[in-house]
């Protein structure tokens, strides 16, 4: 039998239909891969495929996702297992309902097999801030998988699931996707319901998708996108058929590059990016230099706004309404302090303090108010650029995966890995990271493509062109090899 774990969603559907293999065969292959590979990677916080075995035997739905196992970041709630956000404060929490995305995937016949590791409350860029230990990179297990959706990206890269859901506030799907050599999409703000996603920074948060290919991503997006009465920020715009026309190529597309943002990049990242641009040019794209002057402020603005909103959102974890409750409180004030003090990890506390400070009277205008004004400038700069171009291209990250422990003691250095990704969240536009090959050390790099609001279809079309020319998505990381699967 061919290696089931390498098959695209289209190949799987065709194989099921022809009777080459059954849904149960495929689920067994996935379970075996998780059993073999997960101990070295730690992509999951919770695996349980037992509930899905019956549905796998005879999926009721038809379509590209019927009978397909998937995983979700553990800040997306699902019935039947824990949701921890990789935090001790949520120990023992079980959701009484499914997030809308989970419910839509289940209706399409998909099978949730596990919940993925993340930086605590999605705050981080390496998954080292998980209270349950880091996820390791399948390309080199001495290195991080990126974050905060490191578990989701590593699970897909290591062939443990064909797709996974993550969440994005400032790059948390695209950055780990890039570091793990898979595709990560952050859709337009409002394209996907966030009902059941634990909030980090509400004006930035969006659920994202990790797959190996653009077409697989198109199928998942078509299934989960669209208005949801439970989420007032979800858009009522009609949902595209994202796979339709995906082979139309890039001829005539205007692809913008921002020269000033490329200065200072390590040589291997720069060469990788130049090669990627050459591929787009060879397909008939027109390369245009544009300037986005406010882009350089993205990190400063992002970390003020994200932390300010986080400090408000995380107030609900107080030991009374939600979360761990300290056993020796004494009085009410101490109950709050002790429960939060015991439950939250260091990075989350740092964010709450920074965010509370940025919002405090006397400093509000100097920090939060000013950040919001620069955010408005960024929106205007992007709108202006998108009059001249269809797609903006940058590297996804300044460099490949770093060593475990390398940046964890230096928050600012860690924050800088979001330099190319945070702008799309601040502006609300969609962006995708596509595998673009490897640096000198054999670590994956990513090409980031950004388009204007609701242009996901265009992004996936360009991604499909690029990946079909280069084929990097076919490479399999060493940690995904098992005697059984190779
Ligand atoms: N790395 C960023 C942060 O630490 C982004 C997180 C995210 O997108 N959830 O805030």
DSSP strand content: 5-15%
User: What topology, given as strand order, has the largest sheet?
Assistant: 1-3-2-6-8-7-12-13-11-9-10
* Overall geometry: globular
Task: Name the helix and strand elements from N-terminus to C-terminus, one letter apiece.
Answer: HHEHEHEEEHEHEEHEHHEHHHHEHHEEH
> What about the largest sheet?
11 strands, mixed
The total strand number stands at 13
Given helix and strand content, the structural type is alpha/beta
Number of helices: 16
Distance between the termini: 11 Å
Ligand inventory: glutamine
Share of residues in helices: 25-40%
- Kindly state the mean pLDDT as a whole number? 95
Using only C-alpha atoms, the radius of gyration works out to: 21 Å
Are there runs of 5+ residues with pLDDT below 50, and where?
A: none
Assembly state = single chain
Provide an overview of this structure.
This protein has 486 residues and is α/β, with parallel strands linked by helices. Helices cover 37% and strands 14% of the residues. The chain has helices at 9-18, 23-41, 53-57, 100-107, 150-157, 174-180, 214-224, 259-262, 267-282, 298-313, 332-343, 346-359, 365-388, 411-415, 422-427, 456-470; strands at residues 44-47, 69-73, 111-116, 136-137, 140-144, 163-168, 183-186, 206-211, 254-257, 286-289, 391-395, 431-438, 444-450. The strands form two sheets. Strands 1-3-2-6-8-7-12-13-11-9-10 form an eleven-stranded mixed sheet, with helices on both faces. Strands 4-5 form a two-stranded antiparallel sheet. The model has no long low-confidence stretch (mean pLDDT 95). Residues 122-125, 148, 167-172, 200, 306, 418 line the site of glutamine.
């Amino acid at each position: 039998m061919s290696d089931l774990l390498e098959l695209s969603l289209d190949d799987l559907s065709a194989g099921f239909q022809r009777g080459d293999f059954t849904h149960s065969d495929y689920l067994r292959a996935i379970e075996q891969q998780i059993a073999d590979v997960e101990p070295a990677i730690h992509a999951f916080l919770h695996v349980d495929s037992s509930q899905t075995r019956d549905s796998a035997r005879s999926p009721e739905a038809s379509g590209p996702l019927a009978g397909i196992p998937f995983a979700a970041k553990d800040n997306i709630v699902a019935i039947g297992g824990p949701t921890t956000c990789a935090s001790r404060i949520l120990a023992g929490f079980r959701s009484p309902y499914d997030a809308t995305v989970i419910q839509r995937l289940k209706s399409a016949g998909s099978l949730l097999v596990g919940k993925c590791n993340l930086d605590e409350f999605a705050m981080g860029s390496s998954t080292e801030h998980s209270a349950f230990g880091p996820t390791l990179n399948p390309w080199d297990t001495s290195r991080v998988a990126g974050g905060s959706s490191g578990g989701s990206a590593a699970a897909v890269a290591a062939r443990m699931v064909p797709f996974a859901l993550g969440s994005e506030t400032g790059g948390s799907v695209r950055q780990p996707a890039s570091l793990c050599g898979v595709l990560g999409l952050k859709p337009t703000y409002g394209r996907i319901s966030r009902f059941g996603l634990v909030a980090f920074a509400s004006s930035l948060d969006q659920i994202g998708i990790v797959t190996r290919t653009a077409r697989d991503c198109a199928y998942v997006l078509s299934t989960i996108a669209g208005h949801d009465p439970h989420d007032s920020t979800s858009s009522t715009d009609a949902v595209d058929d994202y796979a339709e026309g995906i082979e139309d190529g890039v001829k005539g597309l205007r692809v913008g590059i921002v020269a000033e943002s490329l200065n200072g990049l390590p040589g291997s990242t720069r060469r990788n990016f130049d090669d990627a641009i050459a591929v787009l040019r060879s397909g008939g794209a027109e390369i245009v230099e544009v300037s986005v002057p406010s882009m350089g402020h993205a990190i400063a603005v992002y970390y003020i706004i994200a932390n300010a909103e986080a400090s408000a959102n995380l107030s609900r974890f107080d030991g009374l309404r939600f979360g761990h409750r300290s056993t020796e409180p004494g009085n009410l004030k101490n109950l709050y302090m002790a429960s939060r003090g015991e439950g939250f990890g260091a990075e989350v506390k740092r964010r709450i303090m920074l965010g509370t400070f940025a919002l405090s009277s006397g400093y509000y205008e100097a920090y939060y108010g000013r950040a919001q004004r620069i955010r408005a400038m960024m929106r205007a700069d992007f709108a202006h650029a998108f009059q001249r171009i269809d797609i903006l291209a940058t590297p996804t990250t300044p460099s490949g995966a770093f060593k475990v422990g390398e940046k964890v003691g230096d928050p600012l250095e860690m924050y800088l890995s979001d330099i190319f990704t945070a702008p799309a969240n601040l502006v609300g536009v969609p962006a995708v990271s596509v595998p673009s090959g490897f640096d000198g050390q054999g670590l994956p790099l990513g090409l980031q493509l950004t388009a204007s609001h609701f242009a996901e279809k265009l992004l996936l079309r360009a991604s499909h062109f690029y990946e079909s020319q280069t084929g990097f998505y076919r490479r399999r990381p060493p940690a995904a090899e098992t005697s059984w699967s190779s």
